[in-house]
Amino acid sequence: MLNLINIIMLILMFVFNLNSNLHEVSVGFSLQGSKLELTLDPVFVCYVDSLDWLNQLAGESILGFALGDIVVVKKQCKNNPFVLQHELNHVKQYQALGDYFQIAGLLGLNLEGYPYYPNGDIRKINATMWKPPDWWPFHWHLIDLEFQIAQ
Ligand SMILES: [Zn+2]
User: How do the pLDDT tens digits run along the chain, 151 residues long?
Assistant: First the structure.
């Protein structure tokens, strides 16, 4: 589901010329027996003038958001690396949790960096956000291809 939403968002971002920038690309390879898996996560960052519609929806001032491999940040925060870092932390969370991202928040994972979120020091927010440990089995990728290799 998240893949479909991400692909639709990417198409809309390009159609409406929102100047999304390719921020980073993660590529993964896995060979298990005769199954080869290739994964690709191009992370796009888009700066927008306004997120008023989201502010109204959320009932608070939103500086940016992430959804899967897509990050959207208000232009006024372009020179604040901690806002981008916060949203990139969410990208790592999405890559670790996939479609379970929202449920994980409800189950108690500190996805936003409480108690500092939303009005505290953003560096403390970023430091307290849940991040997947190195051993975490990342399972969501924007592009995930499997091939059978003839043996
Ligand atoms: Zn956040």
Answer: 778 888 888 888 888 888 889 999 999 999 999 999 999 999 999 999 988 888 888 887 889 999 999 999 999 999 999 999 999 999 999 999 998 988 998 899 999 999 999 889 999 999 999 999 999 987 889 999 999 998 7
- Residue 19 in contact with residue 46, Cβ under 8 Å? yes
Q: Tokens for 79?
A: 């020179």
Segments forming the whole domain that contains residue 29: 2-148
What is the Å distance from ligand 1's center to 128 Cα? 11
Read off the DSSP letter of residue 79.
Answer: T
The pTM (predicted TM-score) of the whole model is 0.88
Split into its structural domains, the chain has a count of 1
Question: Which residues have CB under 8 Å from 132's CB, separation 6+?
Answer: 92, 93, 95, 96, 97, 138
Q: 117 C-alpha vs ligand 1 centroid, how far in Å?
A: 8
Identify whether the C-beta of residue 148 lies closer than 8 Å to the C-beta of residue 31.
no
CA 109 to chain CA centroid, Å, is 16
Query: Smallest Cα–Cα separation from 117: which of 106, 109, 129?
Result: 129
